Amino acid sequence: MEHSKLTKLELKKFTAFDEIKMDFSPGINIFIGANGTGKTHILKVLYAACDITKTKLGFADKINRVFLPSQRKIGRLVNRKVGSGKASIEVYRGDNLKIGCDFSVYKELPTNDLDKWAENWRSYEIDSAYIPVKEMLANAPGFLSLYAERLIHFEEVYNDIINRANRPIARGRPSPIRSKYINSLQKIIDGRVIPRNFEYFLKTKAGKEKAELEFTLLAEGMRKLALLLLLIKNDTLVDGSILFWDEPEANLNPSMKKVVIDLLLKLQRDGVQIFIATHDYIVLKEFDLLRQTKDKIRFFALYHDKENKIQYNSTDDFLMIEPNLIQETFLDIYDRDIERALKSIAGGDKE
């Protein structure tokens, strides 16, 4: 299903960006960079473009919902530092389909007339999921009702991921590929995830007794793995779908990161396109160590140039990532640790 893959992004005067153009891998795309270089913004724009193929919302409207500017005025998303009062977004996929919108700094409300090429873009629906940094399933019952009834200040990605997780499971036996993931994840979390009226429980067996633990009693890292299990069981993550995950390392024990990266690589081999933003060296290095020859991985290193504009370098080779602040920081810690150990051996720590 190559026609469902996202292939390119063009941003002009949008949020922190002056002008940027990116070409994506059909497999895994990994974004690194210092805080404030726009990694999460890229993920949100791409997710919004995918989501409207299902919801039929206007692109500008969805952008407004996932970014949630002050007073919901979309014009606040224009980069006003670079002298222009107009922002432009264009997202491309597969067979040259594209979606876009333009809006000015004076525009208050998003309207469908801001959207370009929307009808053709929606000619093929894309299953997608955006996993935010904060895990939300434990708060699902109260959050969903409040979000539906009140204008609370939460980006729509939180509401969306709860609804994705609660999507009914298809009738019939799961495919062999899906069963493989389900069995693997159930072993890792040592149980089955049971959704019940927007509450989630982990059904586990301790000795001869069976127990159901509500998600509020589980570690957040385990809840993230349970979320992946739900998305696979209900066919949200299948061949042709797209997963966006902001900081998968958050609240995840280092020993579990290898498990998660291995799972993501396997999903990519089975046709899921993946976009990740990370600050974690272990996550970055596990992709390098676990990848196979045919795996399609592209790294994007975002940075501020001398004029304080956001630029990026991209590469399919881990060793060619530049700049790589994550690795530089890791090596600095390693060097300092070695230096301290040598001083201790030489008696230098007595000064």
The structure class reads alpha/beta
Helical percent range?
A: 25-40%
CATH class of the domain at 2-127 and 238-350 reads Alpha Beta
What's the tally of helices?
A: 10
Instruction: Give the integer mean of the pLDDT values.
Output: 89
Q: Please write the string of helix (H) and strand (E) elements.
A: EEEHHEEEHEHHHEEEHEHEHEEH
Radius of gyration: 22 Å
Strand share of the residues?
A: 15-25%
Number of strands: 14
User: By CATH's scheme, which homologous superfamily of the domain at 2-127 and 238-350 applies?
Assistant: P-loop containing nucleotide triphosphate hydrolases
CATH architecture of the domain at 2-127 and 238-350: 3-Layer(aba) Sandwich
**Globular, elongated, flat, extended or rod-shaped: what is the shape?**
globular
Strand order of the largest sheet: 7-11-12-3-13-14
Q: Examine the coordinates and then state which fold CATH places here, giving the name of the CATH topology of the domain at 2-127 and 238-350.
A: Rossmann fold
- Most strands sheet: 6 strands, mixed
Give the terminus-to-terminus CA distance: 65 Å
